[in-house]
Design goal:
The complex is a heterodimer of chains A (114) and B (116).
Chain A: E1 5-7, E2 10-13, E3 19-24, E4 31-38, E5 42-50, E6 53-57, E7 64-68, E8 74-78, E9 87-94, E10 104-105, E11 109-113
Parallel strand pairs in A: 2-11
Antiparallel strand pairs in A: 1-3, 3-8, 4-5, 4-9, 5-6, 7-8, 9-10, 9-11
Chain B: E1 3-5, E2 10-14, E3 19-21, E4 24-26, E5 31-38, E6 44-50, E7 56-58, E8 64-68, E9 73-78, E10 87-95, E11 105-106, E12 110-115
Parallel strand pairs in B: 2-12
Antiparallel strand pairs in B: 1-4, 3-9, 5-6, 5-10, 7-8, 8-9, 10-11, 10-12
Classes of the chains: A mainly beta (114), B mainly beta (116).
Chain lengths: 114, 116
């Protein structure tokens, strides 16, 4: 158990809909990261927050947005969903914001878009 | 930009045999290097990382990796594998210049299949 929790575990929805994925980082960690894992694209970095502020952006679509709240939990919002958004979405956390900090991954949320 | 190539998508091996999982990277700047493991239906777990210093890095569960700057490689090795090592292994890099943020670039992964 990494100490990072993600809800829900599974999510099934229809095209065009909007969903929210939630992540609680390890106690004391200030950085939160979101990743997407799919069969065709592999594991891709989406976005990083540190202590409530956006720090880095990867291959995140404009239809996707995220935020980190004062209690440090984070939410990833996916809107106008398409079939291709079906994937495993991971959240990770680390104590610091830099590349050398170890990232601890949650168990993931599996999103299925029908 | 960085890219990571894991040359083998699957590596079958017998229990107690040695294994090497290959990773090559491309980057115009210096990078930190990582190996993560993903067991079925779980998140990723850090196996080991190279930040600086000795090019031979030891990690958890008996794994080690060697950084070779001239060949831009970071191959993962274990002298004797166990059934429980069956998992997917990901190599990743992140630029050292990113002092205020972190962007990990992952390879496509190598599935290690250990059979009795």
């Amino acid at each position: 158990d990494s100490g990072v929790t993600q809800t829900p575990k599974h999510l099934i929805t229809a095209t065009g809909q909007r969903v929210t994925l939630r992540c609680s980082p390890r106690s004391g960690d200030l950085s939160v990261y979101w990743y997407q894992q799919s069969l065709d694209q592999g594991l891709q970095f989406l976005i990083q927050y540190y202590n409530g502020e956006e720090r880095a952006k990867g291959n995140i679509l404009e239809r996707f947005s995220a935020q980190q709240f004062p209690d440090l939990h984070s939410e990833l919002n996916l809107s106008s969903l398409e079939l291709g958004d079906s994937a495993l979405y991971f959240c990770a956390s680390s104590a610091g914001q830099s590349s050398y900090n170890e990232q601890f991954f949650g168990p993931g949320t599996r999103l299925t878009v029908l | 930009a960085q890219s990571v190539t894991q040359l083998d998508s699957q590596v079958p091996v017998f229990e107690e045999a040695p294994v090497e999982l290959r990773c090559n990277y491309s980057s115009s700047v210096s990078v930190y290097l990582f190996w993560y493991v993903q067991y079925p239906n779980q998140g990723l777990q850090l196996l080991l990382k190279y930040l600086s210093g000795s090019t031979l890095v030891k990690g958890i569960n008996g794994f080690e990796a060697e950084f070779n700057k001239s060949q831009t490689s970071f191959h993962l090795r274990k002298p004797s594998v166990h059934i429980s090592d069956t998992a997917e292994y990901f190599c990743a890099v992140s630029p050292t210049v990113n002092s205020g943020y972190s962007t990990l670039t992952f390879g496509k992964g190598t599935m290690l299949l250990v059979s009795p």
